[in-house]
C-alpha cells in the first residue's frame, strides 16, 4: 500500500563544492524539485508516495544516509513529512440564521480600532 506525503528536506552546512552532488543524491531518493539556497542551507519539497510499508522514520534515515555520503561527511539534515491523506481540517457551515446575521452585518459601516468609519 502506498501513502501520499509531502516531503520537505532542509540541509545545512553542506560542503560548498558538494551542493550539486547532495541535491542529486536527494533527488535519486525522492523526486525533489525547485531547490532553494539560502546562506548555509538548501531545501526542497514535493509530494510523492511512500511504498512497500516504508515508514516516515525509515525514509528520513535512508535520505540522510545518501545525503551524508554525497556530502562526504556530516551535515544537518531535517526531513518534514506531512501525511496528505489525513490532514487536519476545519469545516465551516452556515445556516439561514447565520446568513441573515452576516448579511446584515455587511450593511453596517466597518469601524477601526479608534471607532472611526472606514467606508
Short note summarizing the structure:
The chain contains three helices and four strands; from the N terminus they run E-H-E-E-H-E-H. The protein has helices at 19-29, 56-71, 96-106; strands at residues 3-12, 33-38, 41-50, 76-83.
Explain what the structure shows.
- The protein is α+β, with helices and mostly antiparallel strands and 119 residues long.
- It is built from 3 helices and 4 strands, in the order βαββαβα.
- Strand 2 and strand 3 form a beta hairpin.
- The model has no long low-confidence stretch (mean pLDDT 87).
Please estimate the helix content: 25-40%
> Could you state the order of secondary-structure elements as H and E?
EHEEHEH
- Shape, please? elongated
Count of extended strands: 4
Main sheet attributes: strand count, strand direction, barrel closure: 4 strands, antiparallel
Which features characterize this protein?
four-stranded antiparallel sheet; 4 strands; 3 helices; 119 residues; elongated
Amino acid at each position: 500500500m502506498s501513502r501520499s506525503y509531502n516531503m520537505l528536506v532542509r540541509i545545512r552546512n553542506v560542503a560548498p563544492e558538494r551542493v550539486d552532488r547532495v541535491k542529486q543524491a536527494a533527488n535519486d531518493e525522492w523526486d525533489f524539485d525547485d531547490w532553494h539556497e539560502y546562506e548555509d542551507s538548501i531545501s526542497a519539497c514535493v509530494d510523492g508516495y511512500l511504498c512497500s510499508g516504508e515508514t516516515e522514520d525509515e525514509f528520513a534515515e535512508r535520505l540522510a544516509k545518501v545525503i551524508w555520503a554525497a556530502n562526504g561527511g556530516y551535515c544537518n539534515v531535517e526531513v518534514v513529512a506531512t501525511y496528505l491523506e489525513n490532514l487536519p481540517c476545519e469545516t465551516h457551515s452556515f445556516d439561514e440564521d447565520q446568513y441573515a446575521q452576516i448579511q446584515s452585518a455587511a450593511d453596517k459601516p466597518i469601524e477601526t480600532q479608534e471607532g472611526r468609519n472606514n467606508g
